[in-house]
Amino acid sequence: MTETRAKRALITGITGQDGSYLAELLLSKGYEVHGLIRRASTFNTARIDHLYTDPHVAGTRLFLHYGDLSDGSRLATLLDSVKPDEVYNLAAQSHVRVSFDEPEYTGNSTGLGSIRLLEAIRMVGLDCRYYQASSSEMFGATPPPQNEETPFYPRSPYGAAKVYSYWVTRNYREGYGMFAVNGILFNHESPRRGETFVTRKITRAVARIKAGQQSELFMGNLDAVRDWGYAPEYVEAMWRMLQHDEPTDYVVATGTDYTVRDFLQFSFEHAGLDWEKYVRFDERYLRPTEVDALVGDAGKAERLLGWVPTVKTPELARLMVDADIEALDAAGRPWIDTVTVGPWAPAPQI
Ligand code: NAP
Ligand code: G4F
Question: For the segment 69-101, what is each residue's pLDDT rounded down to a tens digit?
Answer without folding.
Answer: 999 999 999 999 999 999 999 999 999 999 999
